[in-house]
Amino acid sequence: MYNCAVILAAGEGKRMKSSIPKVLHKVCGREMVNIVIDSAKKAQIEDIDVVIGKGAEQVKEATKSRDVTYSLQDGQLGTGHAVLCAGDFLKGKEGTVVIFTGDSPLIEEDAIKNMLNFHNKGKYKATVLTAEVDDPTGYGRIVRKKNGEVLKIVEHKDCSAEELKINEINSGMYCFDIESLVENLDKLHNNNVQGEYYLTDVIEILKNKGERIGALPVNFEEVMGVNSRLQLSKAERVMRNRVNNMHMKNGITIIDPNTTYIGLNVKIGRDTTIYPGNVIEGNTVIGENCVLYPNSRIKDSTIDDNVIVQSSVILSSSVGKNVTVGPFAYIRPESVIGRSVKIGDFVEIKKSTIGDRTKVAHLTYIGDAEVGSGCNFGCGTVVVNYDGKVKNKTLVGNNSFIGCNTNLVSPVKVNDNTYIAAGSTITDEVPEGSLAIARARQVNKEGWVYKKGLGK
Ligand code: UD1
Ligand code: CA
């Protein structure tokens, strides 16, 4: 049976108090609307239309990688009006449309598939996904007859005192027979407290026509809506638990899942251990047997096997096998760290390549440089890559020993097998096999202290 989906994402989200459209707020690093699109696709719904309105261009831009179509809702007159705006998308289609709201990101593949099965098997014209919840405040309530049949959905603001006591809520997700939905959308009115055209009223209209209405209760965690920052944080917690549970199932040790923040796109190899306070974001891949000690942020980076990181920031870079990073290192975008490298404390690497087995142990800045293998950077080395106008390149060959407190004034080249004396300011090429000393000779003025009367 043909199916498709319409995702309602035109609302502003006033309760978020935000300048970005609500559905673009992120849960575990991914925009809510994209999470919904991805779940629908996982449930084998290919044909997806997103209703946009408030911040339409932003929503389009944020979803452009997802292969969906768009309908524009000019003026947010309610969820029923929003679906009406997808009329061109639904026109002429036969089968089932699944309606999602872009602000309910916790819905999963299985729940969607179950809803579709339930709807098709029961031959319903409409099926609403519901949940029982202790505090139903803000949600539409499911009003059932004594025999359990669904009569209608009443919005919180329109509820009578009796209806407010109902704990079964409307998730805002439904399956509809496309033709039955389309032919009743223009029968909606906005004669309610919010003055909106409610999609939920289609249920009552169909019921009054004697059509079969299904209701499928699921776990509240699947359908939680996000209308406020508080609810956003609750959704984040649920999603974070799911992500962390998945990694633990795959053989990763997470010491404290409550304080470990792993994005939805992150991949992690077996036997890696993650200590509290780590934030792993974007398209990051972490290898096997790594140890992430507390308090690092790793974003859009590839970390190979057996890497140890502690209290550091790694952005858009790659780190080879057996490397140690930190504590307190900062690896900035476009850096490539080879194998068995040591990046120690208070080291900053920016847009640089560091060859295998090179040690940059402490208090060093390396920017716009290509560094070979087997080098040793003494404490306090600075690559002087910026002359006030442009960033220049520095080349350091293999097996170079850079003495402490050296400045490498770019552009400059240090060839293979070289030594640089501590405290040198290198401005000229250092030839292969040589020692470079670039500092003033020491002068001792004997007896100077006493002559000045400063002796004690
Ligand atoms: C809606 C349901 C409510 C349900 C709840 C579940 C209605 C009338 N109410 O209420 O029964 O319990 O979701 O979370 O449907 N939107 C548009 N255009 C509009 C209005 C809304 O695209 O004109 C979109 C919003 O961007 C949002 C979604 O529809 O993604 C839901 O809108 P929202 O205003 O959050 O509805 P709720 O009050 O939460
Ligand atoms: Ca909502």
Automatic annotation (TrEMBL):
Catalyzes the last two sequential reactions in the de novo biosynthetic pathway for UDP-N-acetylglucosamine (UDP-GlcNAc). The C-terminal domain catalyzes the transfer of acetyl group from acetyl coenzyme A to glucosamine-1-phosphate (GlcN-1-P) to produce N-acetylglucosamine-1-phosphate (GlcNAc-1-P), which is converted into UDP-GlcNAc by the transfer of uridine 5-monophosphate (from uridine 5-triphosphate), a reaction catalyzed by the N-terminal domain. Residues 5-214 form the Nucleotidyl transferase domain. Binds 1 Mg(2+) ion per subunit. Mg(2+) binds at D103, N227. It comes from the Bacteria. InterPro entries: Bifunctional_GlmU, GlmU-like, GlmU_C_LbH, Hexapep, NTP_transferase_dom, Nucleotide-diphossugar_trans, Trimer_LpxA-like_sf. Residues 230-250 are annotated as: Linker. Keywords: Acyltransferase, Cell shape, Cell wall biogenesis/degradation, Cytoplasm, Magnesium, Metal-binding, Multifunctional enzyme, Nucleotidyltransferase, Peptidoglycan synthesis, Repeat, Transferase. It is found in: Cytoplasm. UDP-N-acetyl-alpha-D-glucosamine binds at residues 8-11, 22, 73, 78-79, 140, 155, 170, 227, 332, 350, 365, 376. It comes from Clostridium lapidicellarium. Its EC number is 2.7.7.23, 2.3.1.157. Homotrimer. Residues 251-456 are annotated as: N-acetyltransferase. The active site is at H362. GO terms for molecular function: glucosamine-1-phosphate N-acetyltransferase activity; UDP-N-acetylglucosamine diphosphorylase activity. Acetyl-CoA binds at N385, Y386, A422, R439. Its cofactor is Mg(2+). Pathway: Nucleotide-sugar biosynthesis; UDP-N-acetyl-alpha-D-glucosamine biosynthesis; UDP-N-acetyl-alpha-D-glucosamine from N-acetyl-alpha-D-glucosamine 1-phosphate: step 1/1; Bacterial outer membrane biogenesis; LPS lipid A biosynthesis; Nucleotide-sugar biosynthesis; UDP-N-acetyl-alpha-D-glucosamine biosynthesis; N-acetyl-alpha-D-glucosamine 1-phosphate from alpha-D-glucosamine 6-phosphate (route II): step 2/2. Residues 1-229 are annotated as: Pyrophosphorylase. It catalyses: alpha-D-glucosamine 1-phosphate + acetyl-CoA = N-acetyl-alpha-D-glucosamine 1-phosphate + CoA + H(+); N-acetyl-alpha-D-glucosamine 1-phosphate + UTP + H(+) = UDP-N-acetyl-alpha-D-glucosamine + diphosphate. This is Bifunctional protein GlmU. In the N-terminal section; belongs to the N-acetylglucosamine-1-phosphate uridyltransferase family. In the C-terminal section; belongs to the transferase hexapeptide repeat family.
